[in-house]
Every structure is written in C-alpha cells, then in structure tokens.
Amino acid sequence: MSAQVGYYWHLRKLMAERGLFATTALVPLLAERGVRLSREQVYRLVTGVPERLSLVTLAALCDILGCAPTDLVEPYRGRPRRAADPGASAALADTAPSDTTAPATTAPRAVSSPVVMPLRPRRAEITAVPGPGTGS
User: Fold this and answer.
1) What is the chain's percent helix, strand, coil content, to nearest 5?
2) Which residues are CB-neighbours of 18 under 8 A, at least 6 positions away?
3) Residue 6: CA count within 13 A, CB half-sphere
4) What does the alpha-carbon distance between residue 40 and residue 89 come to, in Å, rounded to a whole number?
C-alpha cells in the first residue's frame, strides 16, 4: 500500500496574523511584485487549497507576508488531521505532524484519494406494477 502524501495551505491564517482580512487587499500587493491575478483568482487562492501554484506567486506571497514557503505549505504523510473531530489528534498521532490542530479555515489537500470504506450493494426488489382494471 502506498503512503498518502498531502499538504495544508496556511495562507488565510498568515494573512490574518498580519492584519490582512480582505482577500482583495492581496491584489495590489501581488501586482506590485509582477503577479497579475483577478479578484476571483485571489479569493480562490486564499479560501481554497490550490492544486497548482507558480513559484513566482509563491515567492510574491512569501515576500508580502514576510514568511518562508514552509510557513505557507505544510506537507504531511499519512491521513490528514481534522480540526472538527476532537478524537482525530489521538487517532492520527502517529501520522500527523506534531501540531495536531489544523486551522478551521484550511482544508487539507490530499494528493491521492482518501481511503473510503466500500459500500455493499443491495439487491434490487422488483414489485408488480398494478395494471388497469386490477382495482389498485
């Protein structure tokens, strides 16, 4: 079985720590550094977990926030931890990083699909359809 590898995206948390609460505040700051993104693209970058990100954009974000790339992207190996599940930190202690509390605004991004318990199919039941004149 192959190991699941993913990452946590901490852009929203870092922005809040530096007093940047509006996603639109990043648009001119990125433009000053040569990164031209629309309001919508920046909103998705902040509120979601990007699958692809150019190194120029990553470098601009690090410059704006005064951080390192490892502050924005936290890789993990194993199953992602869940902030909403109080028992997750204990159950996943062997696979999650030492800090077991994920920010509520950051969803983990798994590179491979998560393991899902298989559903068991149920046999279809065929019933008679009442025809005309049967009284039903």
Assistant:
1) 35, 10, 60
2) 65, 66
3) 21
4) 34
Between the alpha carbon of residue 29 and those of residues 32, 36, 62, 65, 102, the distances in Å are 5, 10, 11, 10, 27
CA distance 100 to 37: 33
Question: What pLDDT, on a 0 to 100 scale, did the predictor assign at position 99?
Answer: 43
Distance CA 58, CA 54 (A): 6
41-47 contacts, C-beta under 8 A, 24 or more apart: 45/11, 46/11, 46/12, 46/15, 47/12, 47/23, 47/105
Radius of gyration of the CA atoms of the chain, in A: 23
Torsions phi, psi for 75 (to 5 deg): -75, 155
Q: Per the confidence metrics, is the pTM higher than 0.90?
A: no
Under 8 Å between Cβ of 83 and 104: yes
Query: What is the pLDDT, as a whole number, of residue 79?
Result: 78
The pLDDT of residue 124: 75
- What is the average per-residue pLDDT within 47-72? 96
